Amino acid sequence: MDLISIVLWPLKWAVELLLVGWHWLFSAMGMDPAAGLTWVLAIVGLVVVVRAALIPIFVRQIKNQRRMLEVAPQLKKIQEKYKGKKDQFSREAMSRETMELYKKTGTNPLSSCLPLLLQMPIFFALFSVLNDAQHGKTGVGPLNAELAKQFGDAELFGVAPLHSSFASQWTLMLEGEPFSASVMIIAAVMVVLMTASQFITQLQIVSKNMSPETKASPMFKQQRIMLYLLPLVFAFSGVAFPLGVMFYWLTSNIWTMVQQFVVIRNMPTPGSEAAKAREERLARKGKLVATDGTVIVVDEEAAKKTQRQQPISKNRAKKQTKPGDQK
After folding, report:
1. How many CB atoms lie within 10 A of CB 39?
2. What is the pLDDT of residues 135-145, one digit of tens each?
């Protein structure tokens, strides 16, 4: 075994355990054990378990991003202090002061990438499991010979093998060999969905969840670049991965998009458009948002009474403006 195989071995064992568990569940519900749809749903179940386990890390990521926004003005002062100074002493001093600021405030610039970094080994473990199954290899864990053969031979809708990719079929087509147009169509649709979901996720952050101060900082420019860069990464790299792995990627993207929507709606960045919209929603319910983010109930009954009285007041005002009433 090479070094990569040794590192991936425990991850492959865990991936196989989850895949086999979900596959058993869907098979027990009456689905065909050898069908591609059964294995696709098992992959979706794998994503659900992995992303649910990463929720605490995601919450920590949100808190770290808030702290990064708080220290942004201080970080900008350090950068301005050493602006134009390119000597080694100035660069070391700037780096030292920046690290001291991060340590003092408990922030970590790499924390925002942590959920993605933790998913990548699982992603490659699934790729390895699917690749081994395609070549008739038994899994390292619960994926026995029978299940490995089913997984390796599984075809979505009976026409699109899960181990096949857009790039492989495109190569066969160029060489004049028999190819599967179904694989190319399904892969192309999934790439579009993956790209769109990633774009919407980034757009939510840039358009709704950034304060005016952040939009005036270099961080906003980076987010704008990511808004267009990440979808392109998915568009170009997605065609090279097997359909089974792409289903993992697409499901994870959709999870991220929905999770981001819920966070922006309920835990928006202070001063952002999403925060103002949340304050307006709470105000209509007779609630206020304190400076520390906690929700304070002011007088919910009074707010409801005010809302009920508004239409009556308008009707009375209309009656008073009638010419007959003025006489």
Report:
1. 29
2. 778 888 899 98
Per-residue pLDDT band for 1 (boundaries 50, 70, 90) equals low
| DSSP assignment string, 215-266 | HTSHHHHHHHHHHHHHHHHHHHHGGGS-HHHHHHHHHHHHHHHHHHHHHHHH
Which residues share a beta bridge with 289? Answer: 295
Token pair listed for 124: 């490659």
Asked if residue 161 lies in contact with residue 154, where contact means CB atoms within 8 angstroms, the answer is yes
Residue 67 structure tokens: 């702290």
Whether residue 210 contacts residue 242, with contact meaning beta carbons closer than 8 Å, is answered with no
Residues 174 and 166 sit within 8 Å (Cβ to Cβ): no
Q: How many other C-beta atoms can be found within 10 angstroms of the C-beta atom of residue 81?
A: 12
Whole-angstrom Cα distance, residue 158 to residue 163?
A: 13
Q: Pick the closest to residue 167 from 245, 227, 231, 229 (CA basis).
A: 245
Residue 260: closest CA among 200, 191, 193, 192:
200
**Angle, helix 114-134 to helix 3-28, in steps of 10 degrees:** 80
pLDDT at 25 over 80: yes
CA distances in angstroms from 50 to 54, 115, 255, listed in the order given: 6, 10, 11
CB 123 within 8 A of CB 155: no
pLDDT at 89 over 60: yes
pLDDT tens-digit readout, 276-317: 888 888 787 777 665 555 666 665 554 455 455 444 434 444
C-alpha R_g of the chain: 27
State whether residue 9 is helix, strand or coil: helix
Dihedral angle at the C-alpha atoms of 97, 102, 103, 106, nearest 10 degrees? 160
Q: Which residue has the higher pLDDT, 310 or 87?
A: 87
